[in-house]
């Protein structure tokens, strides 16, 4: 007997790997792009040195050197977490909630294997 695996098994493994890679690439490539455009406008690029690029750079504070990064003050926790603004319900929504009937669901059927499972998991209790 030879110690080499059968050729059919290797071919099958290669074919399955190739099929999985092909399927994965088809799924990944079919995703829409992340660019969000309106229905009547196309994509637009921000070129370096344009007004849009300058405005974008000015909006983000940047620290270039290590010393500047070390001297930065930490963020104020209270100002960054914000305050929750609960939405007030409209009178029609409150009325609909008040008039909605109470609902409940029926219970499920008991597990037919419950006793066998309990005997297996807790044998000391079944002596």
Fold and architecture overview:
This protein is mainly α and 127 residues long. The chain is built from six helices and no strands. The longest helix is centred in the first third of the chain and has 23 residues, at 7-29. The protein is extended.
List the helices and strands and how they pair.
Layout (H helix, E strand, L loop, with lengths): L6 H23 L21 H9 L6 H6 L5 H5 L9 H9 L14 H8 L6
Which terms would index this structure?
47% helix; 6 helices; 127 residues; mainly alpha
- Determine the N-to-C terminus distance: 53 Å
User: Mind telling me the C-alpha Rg?
Assistant: 32 Å
Which outline best applies?
Answer: extended
Q: Specify the biggest β-sheet.
A: none
Structural category: mainly alpha
The percent range for strand residues is under 5%
Summed up:
This protein has helices spanning 7-29, 51-59, 66-71, 77-81, 91-99, 114-121.
């Amino acid at each position: 007997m030879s110690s080499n695996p059968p050729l059919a098994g290797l071919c099958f493994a290669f074919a399955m790997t190739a099929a999985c890679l092909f399927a994965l690439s088809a799924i990944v490539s079919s995703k829409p792009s992340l660019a969000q455009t309106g229905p009547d406008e196309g994509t637009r690029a921000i070129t370096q040195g344009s007004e849009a690029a300058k405005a974008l750079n000015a909006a983000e504070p940047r620290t270039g050197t290590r010393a500047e990064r070390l001297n930065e003050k930490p963020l104020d926790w209270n100002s960054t977490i914000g305050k929750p603004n609960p939405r007030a319900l409209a009178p029609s929504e409150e009325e609909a909630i008040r008039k909605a009937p109470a609902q409940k669901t029926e219970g499920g059927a008991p597990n037919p294997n419950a006793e066998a499972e309990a005997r297996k998991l807790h044998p000391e209790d079944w002596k």
